[in-house]
Amino acid sequence: MTPVQTHSRSTRSTHPAAVHGTVADVMYAAGPQVWNDMTVEVALSVMAAAGTGHLIVCDEDGQCTDLVTRARLTAVRTGLGYTDRVRLRDVAGVDAGGFASPLTTVAEAEHVMRRRRLGVLPVVDEDGNALGVIALSR
């Protein structure tokens, strides 16, 4: 698996040599960002409407706290004890893989993603604001 660049937020290079650089060279737009008090049901609806498989979860200060995937939320929804009142903060950190800095090398990010079996890793700045995501191709 190797990182894939799709739509970049910036004008960074899309040259194949970029995979030897930093995460900032290959990240793409973070996609929808939601608050941690959103219910799982609403989050799944937002994903469906946006045509995405993940959401960046933010706290009340707008800082990135988690990334949730459709697979993770579907598993929560089918679990015992689930109600339609379960919020993203209630499932946060279950399988969180952390975050990457824009200065993290692509090789380091790939290593972390493979070791933790993550398909997507958020890229955040020093203040915790989501800048984008990096994804592994299948």
From TrEMBL:
CDD domains per the UniProt record, alphabetical:
CBS_pair_SF
The reply on keyword Cell membrane is no
User: Any idea what this protein is called?
Assistant: CBS domain-containing protein
Question: What keywords appear on the UniProt entry?
Answer: CBS domain
Which Pfam families would you find in this protein's record? CBS
InterPro entries attached here? Answer: CBS_dom, CBS_dom_sf, Diverse_CBS-Domain
Secretion signal span: none
Domain CBS as annotated: residue spans: 87-138
TM regions (residue ranges):
none
